[in-house]
Specification:
The protein has 227 residues and is α/β, with parallel strands linked by helices. Helices cover 40% and strands 21% of the residues. The chain is built from 8 helices and 12 strands. The protein has helices at residues 12-22, 33-42, 59-68, 84-92, 105-117, 152-164, 171-179, 188-203; strands at residues 2-6, 26-30, 47-50, 75-79, 97-100, 126-129, 132-135, 140-143, 146-148, 169-170, 213-216, 220-223. The model has no long low-confidence stretch (mean pLDDT 84).
């Protein structure tokens, strides 16, 4: 599942990014309202987590523009403004849920899961490439009739490649998505190569050279065709 996080708090934003990525969500973030507005109209998301008090363009304006533009993506408002009038204004503008700061991690994740389970979310839960099917809700990966047993990091790598398909993804982008801030740029390239090798072996257990993951020389990796 792909989540857009629009939050200007320089301390909170990376914490939320790490939290959501630990739950294996694909996270795109923006620190300003105008950046968030560009993102939401330029890409497809399963959920938007939106602060109200943003520089350049405020959260309510983003929300209203989304609904005016017929973008029905669920929106969770995350803000320090907890007055009843603020909640009513946000919900009347098209928000699906409202969570006031400070909040508990458990409650935030529960709200996220609830919004992603709503009708319409499951239509986007399956990503495919040929006979390969990855379900972001059940966390199940199959190829043909065979269920593939992937580690959490292998699942995240494959999910990220499928989200970006057919565009190539650099090793740095893969590292930032799967390992967050914990990766060492001096050793990560080898670590990613090992994980990609293991993932290819699981995608092609018969050794037929049909793993779907292609090496793009000088760039990284891509899933570029159905097989």
């Amino acid at each position: 599942m792909k989540i857009l996080l629009v939050e200007d708090d320089a301390d909170l934003r990376p914490q939320l990014e790490d939290l959501l990525r630990q739950q294996r969500y694909l996270v795109v973030s923006a620190a300003r309202g105008d950046q968030g507005l560009d993102r939401v109209f330029g890409e497809s998301f399963d959920l938007v987590i939106l602060d109200l008090m943003l520089p350049e363009v405020d959260g309510l304006t983003i929300l209203k523009e989304m609904r005016r533009g017929k973008i029905a993506t669920p929106v969770l408002i995350l803000t320090a403004r907890d007055a009843v009038a603020d909640r009513v204004s946000g919900l009347d503008s098209g928000a699906d849920d409202y969570l006031a700061k400070p909040f508990s991690v458990a409650e935030l994740l529960a709200r996220v899961r609830a919004l992603l389970r709503r009708p319409g979310s499951e239509r986007d839960s399956r990503m495919t490439a040929g006979t390969l099917v990855l379900d972001t809700i059940s966390r199940r990966v199959t190829r043909g009739e065979q269920t593939l047993e992937l580690t959490p990091k292998e699942f995240s790598l494959l999910e990220f490649l499928l989200y970006n398909r057919p565009r190539p993804v650099s090793r740095i982008a893969l590292a930032e998505h799967v390992w967050g801030d914990d990766f060492d740029p001096f050793t990560m390239s080898n670590t990613i190569d090992v994980h990609i090798k293991n993932l290819r072996r699981k995608l092609d257990p018969q050794g037929r050279g049909n793993s779907l993951i292609k090496t793009i020389r000088g760039i990284g990796f891509a899933i570029q065709q159905d097989s």
